[in-house]
Amino acid sequence: MSFSLAHLSDLHLPVPSGAIHPLSQLAGKRLLAYFAWRRKRRRAVSAAALLADIVAAGADHLAITGDLTNLGLPGEFAAARDWLAALGPSEGVTVVPGNHDATVALPWADGTGLWSPWMSGEAGGAPFPFLRRRGAVALIGLSSAVPTRPGSAAGRLGAAQLAALPGLLEVAGREGLFRIVMIHHPPLLGPGGRRKALADRAALCRVLARHGAELVLHGHHHRPLRGEVPGPRGPI
Question: What's the CA gap between 14 and 27, in Å, rounded?
Fold first, then answer.
């Protein structure tokens, strides 16, 4: 049976009216992100047009690999939640966050926690990594979104996610599922060098080399990229 998957990333949905008030929210790294958004927003695709195109494509599932927001404001997270809800039931959409979604540290309930229905795994416990089975496909979500210093767009998985990931890959592999790892930062060094890289990419690649996956979907660099990392039965 066929399974069609649509992949989107770095949507940077429009900042909703009123989300920036009070202006004191634009401190530190958010201020830099604000100037970047002001410079680039004329090139943004409207959220309504994007939603219409997704619905028209009729994919079986939608995978979104982060950066739904621009500044990481609470109002942006709430607006993105409403946009995700407009796509249909959360069972048909899987999301992981990106670096813009972690511009500054926020309480879980005010930030990415609002997207929990689209990031919920089947085993409970820590939010990441999570596993969602959809037919013959296993979607495994990782979060590389961590607050970083101004000027940095790097990411990190951390020891806990790297320790839990092998178990999910092994379980899905034994079930014969097509394993798709979703992460915002790519597992390879891309454009922008270390400033935009996944800090523990080597550790992630070691996990993939030992336990396998069939596909890694990422975003972050705002351009089409294709690469390969070693797997136990050939390149991933």
Answer: 19
